[in-house]
Amino acid sequence: MDFLLSGVAACGACLFTNPLEVVKTRMQLQGEMKAPGSYPMHYRNVFHATYTICKTDGLLALQKGLLPGLLYQFCMNGVRLGSYSMLETAGYTRTDGRVSAVKSTAAGALAGVGGAFIASPVYLVKTHLQAQSTSTIAVGHQYRHEGMLHALITIYRRHGIIGLWRGSSSAVPRVMVGSAIQLSTFSKAKQFTCDLQVFKPDSWLISLTAGLVSSVFVVLAMTPFDVISTRLYNQPVDQQGKCAT
Q1: Which of 72, 103, 134, 208 has the largest count of CB atoms under 10 Å?
Q2: Which residues does 47 contact at the CB level (< 8 Å), separation at least 6?
Q3: Residue 126 class from Cβ within 10 Å (0-12 exposed, 13-18 middle, 19+ buried)?
Q4: Neighbours of 180 (CB within 10 A)
Q5: Which residues have a Cβ under 8 Å from the Cβ of 195 and sit 6 or more positions away?
Q6: Could you tell me if 120 and 171 are in contact, meaning their C-beta atoms sit under 8 angstroms apart?
Q7: Are 136 and 53 in contact (CB under 8 A)?
Q8: CA–CA dist 130, 62 (Å, integer)
Q9: In this predicted model, what pLDDT tens digit does every residue of 187-221 receive, in sequence order?
Q10: Is 198 exposed, middle or buried (0-12, 13-18, 19+ CB in 10 A)?
Q11: Among 60, 48, 58, 41, which Cα is nearest to 23's?
Q12: Distance CA 65, CA 84 (A)
């Protein structure tokens, strides 16, 4: 049940965050392997990127890759959060009844590895679809997939089953670091907030506060891995799966 609830909750969040994922993917691919100033800046910042995408590709373009995004969140976070919840319930994240930073970080990293590897094929497709755009604002390699199923079939036919896990070598450390930081800082922040007794013991504001604190640390730690992962997933490859550029 923990796996199911974790996946469903992540899917709900994805409906609202997917537009930001599209913007993030485009901005991370912009200027790939080019010196600063040698390429056109289609996306200057998150607000300009959102405006440019809506103006050129249409409002619905902000939800590109939504289906694989939902499937990715369900699989990855279902496994990640579900596994961590089981480890937490079993007491593997605590020492003498209190949250252990080392144990919770290790548990978060372990849970993240499993989730990232299992969901890697749909993250590959999500990246390809979110990078697709009108030629005037295109960044990165353009795959021209017609949808999630078409993309999965095309990749499988060209590169085999292993091709579906291309880029997973970058996804595993990406999610491992992010998961370790997120889950450990969330647990510590939640415990610290409870100790301060600012809110009632059963208040939802405790989890909200812990989540906000945790998200700051996650972004700082995860962004470099995220840029690398996005570019590896989106780079063109030849029939043998080697970089074609």
Answers
A1: 72
A2: none
A3: buried
A4: 22
A5: none
A6: yes
A7: no
A8: 8
A9: 888 888 888 888 888 888 888 898 889 989 988 98
A10: exposed
A11: 48
A12: 27
